[in-house]
UniProtKB/TrEMBL annotation:
<dbReference type="GO" id="GO:0050660">
    <property type="term" value="F:flavin adenine dinucleotide binding"/>
</dbReference>
<dbReference type="InterPro" id="IPR036188">
    <property type="entry name" value="FAD/NAD-bd_sf"/>
</dbReference>
<keyword id="KW-0274">FAD</keyword>
<dbReference type="InterPro" id="IPR012132">
    <property type="entry name" value="GMC_OxRdtase"/>
</dbReference>
<dbReference type="InterPro" id="IPR007867">
    <property type="entry name" value="GMC_OxRtase_C"/>
</dbReference>
<feature type="region of interest" description="Disordered">
    <location>
        <begin position="1"/>
        <end position="21"/>
    </location>
</feature>
<dbReference type="Pfam" id="PF13450">
    <property type="entry name" value="NAD_binding_8"/>
</dbReference>
<dbReference type="Pfam" id="PF05199">
    <property type="entry name" value="GMC_oxred_C"/>
</dbReference>
<feature type="domain" description="Glucose-methanol-choline oxidoreductase N-terminal">
    <location>
        <begin position="116"/>
        <end position="329"/>
    </location>
</feature>
<keyword id="KW-0560">Oxidoreductase</keyword>
<dbReference type="Pfam" id="PF00732">
    <property type="entry name" value="GMC_oxred_N"/>
</dbReference>
<dbReference type="InterPro" id="IPR000172">
    <property type="entry name" value="GMC_OxRdtase_N"/>
</dbReference>
<dbReference type="GO" id="GO:0008812">
    <property type="term" value="F:choline dehydrogenase activity"/>
</dbReference>
<protein>
    <submittedName>
        <fullName>Choline dehydrogenase</fullName>
        <ecNumber>1.1.99.1</ecNumber>
    </submittedName>
</protein>
<feature type="domain" description="Glucose-methanol-choline oxidoreductase C-terminal">
    <location>
        <begin position="405"/>
        <end position="540"/>
    </location>
</feature>
<keyword id="KW-0285">Flavoprotein</keyword>
<comment type="similarity">
    <text>Belongs to the GMC oxidoreductase family.</text>
</comment>
Length: 551
């Protein structure tokens, strides 16, 4: 049998053990003098990574640290441990995306960048679409780049739930700051807001609601509104062009198109991982892969990390693996203005309001490929075309909620590697999102909208006045009356002080395993209240610093 190694040009080139950085050094960079941290320069996501065409038969390799998943969580850990002198392999199931690999057409883009072609949904009383990427860089390649710190009270709530008293805003602050500096996170400038975002601000201002430009991990954003299908301007500092190239520069080996499937276990330790190569876009299985490692960090995302643990029969003593799935359900309505606003111009999600955040409600401007939004227009034939003709006057605004009462599960699906996702949307959370919908409607009118397309069952297709829109507040909505989607998912390998309350400890290490860590949104004990990426990265940075310190 031919057993090519995966070293060669990608063999680690980082410092030797004696030169390895200690936690003191790592956290010094995360401390107050972090102004010295140089922002990462955007790199080529394909440079130095192994791709499917590079594999010729079975793949075997060994390393000190195996990181599974190159999204916001995994890429941070890979870079930090590689820079600390560890011999790191980063495994990613998806391919790297060069600019020419992105597709603007929605269907084609979904099929190439998202799991299950973008059609994944949580099942319960209703279907709730939930998107996860399959790409080097994970969700950061397709997301809107919103980087928001969770407020202090989020961590208090987490501690109440699972005892994670050491995870406070103060403790995470240096990690937030370091990630922000490395990614160049800054407020969306007015010049690239576009009228769609500015109308939302106008509505909030008129109602006396606080609102602000979103902070994003972008450089020289041109406001093209294409974040969802991949930034062709390479302005978005997704992890495939930031943290992953930095990890490679520090000697990490990056193997894309490899799916990690099972942990190899020996007592309380994992000795490696088995998986397969996966052909990009056909998603056909290729050759077996076996990687031996001294330490493993799972960061395959909130849907895949629990599947790996469940299929390996690992970390299961608490019974929490794959349970406690939480989502941020979201609803959008379309404001139709009397004058053209060309909504395709401007940063994808340039403005938001945190005014009702403590009540679990976040209000945002939205944009996605025109075909995706148009699928929600009401009517048929002439009526449908009437809406298409007014597209240039429309702006989608959305509400997302911290669905504190709702829970779900992630389980392996028979005969495949996709998860069986279930989510019970609690009536009290539906009431909460309806409240947000009512506020959004007020924002639309205050911003000067002439009508609203609410996209709700049992409500007129078009509401032409604030009086008509009262129905959005007065009618008792059922979750099934809505088109709810949720791209923020967390909680399926939650962090807890005591081993019986969760899957990993406050350092991210599995309670049941001595050398397996989790560093993605699975570990959140509850909602982060805001968009989750930045908190995921700050936690991953903290987990990486902890590993460096203890090893
Ligand atoms: C359309 C969209 C817009 C969003 N907008 C924002 C936003 O603006 N701001 C924000 O904060 N959040 C946003 N989010 C959410 C955010 O992107 C996610 O919370 C974040 O990406 C989660 O990071 P992660 O590392 O936990 O997982 P992921 O980003 O899902 O990364 C996991 C990686 O692991 C890989 N993987 C999975 N299984 C395996 C396996 N078995 N073997 C090898 N590799 C595997 C995946 O391909 C993926 O690359 C958005 C999400 C979507 C889908
Ligand atoms: S709005 Fe356009 S230029 Fe700006 S980050 Fe998104 S895709 Fe890139």
């Amino acid at each position: 049998m031919k057993l090519p190694t995966v070293g060669g040009a990608l063999q680690p080139a980082g410092p030797g053990r004696s030169e390895r950085r200690s936690l003191a050094a790592a956290t010094a960079r995360a401390g107050d003098e972090r102004g010295a941290v140089e922002p990462l320069a955007p790199g080529d996501p394909r440079a130095g990574v192994k791709v499917f065409a590079d594999y010729d038969g079975e793949v075997r390799a060994s390393c000190e640290v195996l990181v599974v998943g190159s999204g916001p969580g995994g890429s941070v850990v890979a870079k930090e441990l590689a820079e600390a002198g560890r011999d790191v392999i980063l495994l990613e199931e998806g391919p790297p995306f060069g600019v020419e690999d992105f597709r603007q057409e929605a269907g084609e883009s979904l099929a190439r960048t998202l799991r299950e072609g973008g059609m994944r949904a949580a099942r319960g009383r209703m279907l709730i679409p939930t998107m996860q990427a399959i790409a080097l860089g994970g969700g950061s390649v397709v997301n809107s780049a919103i980087c928001a710190r969770s407020p202090a009270w989020v961590f208090d709530k987490w501690a109440e739930r699972t005892g994670t008293a050491s995870i406070t805003l103060d403790a995470l602050l240096p990690h937030y700051q370091r990630v922000e500096r490395l990614l160049g996170v800054s407020p969306t400038p007015m010049e690239v807001q576009g009228e769609r975002n500015l109308r939302f601000k106008r509505g909030c201002d008129a109602l006396g609601l606080s609102s602000e430009p979103t902070h994003r991990n972008v450089r020289d954003c041109r406001g093209s509104g294409e974040c969802f299908t991949g930034c062709r301007n390479r302005a978005k500092m997704s992890t495939d062009v930031s943290y992953v190239p930095a990890a490679i520069r520090a000697g990490a080996r990056v193997l894309t198109s490899v799916r990690a499937e099972h942990l190899l276990l020996s007592g309380r330790r994992a000795t490696g991982m088995r998986g397969r190569t996966i052909e990009p876009f056909t998603w056909r299985e290729g050759a077996p892969v076996e990687i031996r490692a001294e330490l493993i960090v799972l960061a395959a995302g909130c849907m895949a990390t629990p599947l790996i643990l469940l299929r390996s029969g690992a970390a299961s003593s608490s019974g929490y693996v794959g349970n406690e799935l939480q989502l941020h359900p979201g609803l959008a309505i379309m404001a139709v203005f009397p004058d053209p606003i060309d909504p395709w111009e401007g940063a994808t999600q340039g403005y938001h309001s945190l005014h009702f955040l403590e009540q679990g409600i976040k209000l945002e401007v939205l944009w996605s490929p025109p075909a995706v939004l148009a699928a929600r227009f009401p009517g048929f034939g002439h009526d449908y075309q009437r809406h298409l003709r007014t597209y240039h006057r429309m702006a989608p605004f959305d509400v997302i909620i911290a669905a504190e009462q709702s829970r779900g599960t992630v389980r392996p699906k028979r005969g495949g590697w996709d998860p069986d996702v279930r989510f019970d949307y609690a009536p009290r959370d539906v009431e909460k999102i309806q409240r947000g919908l009512g506020i959004l409607s007020d924002i639309c009118w205050a911003a000067g909208a002439g009508s609203i397309l609410p996209g709700l069952h049992g409500v007129p297709d078009e509401l032409r006045s604030p009086e008509e829109a009262e129905i959005l507040k007065s009618k008792r909505l059922d979750g099934r009356d809505t088109i709810t989607a949720a791209n923020h998912a967390f909680g399926t390998a939650r962090m807890s002080r005591r081993s019986r309350d969760g899957v990993v400890d406050e350092e991210g290490r599995c309670h049941d395993l001595d050398n397996v860590y989790v560093a993605d949104t699975s570990v959140f004990p509850g909602s982060p209240a805001v968009n989750p990426m930045l908190t995921c990265m700050a936690l991953a940075d903290r987990i990486a610093c902890g590993i460096i310190d203890r090893w």
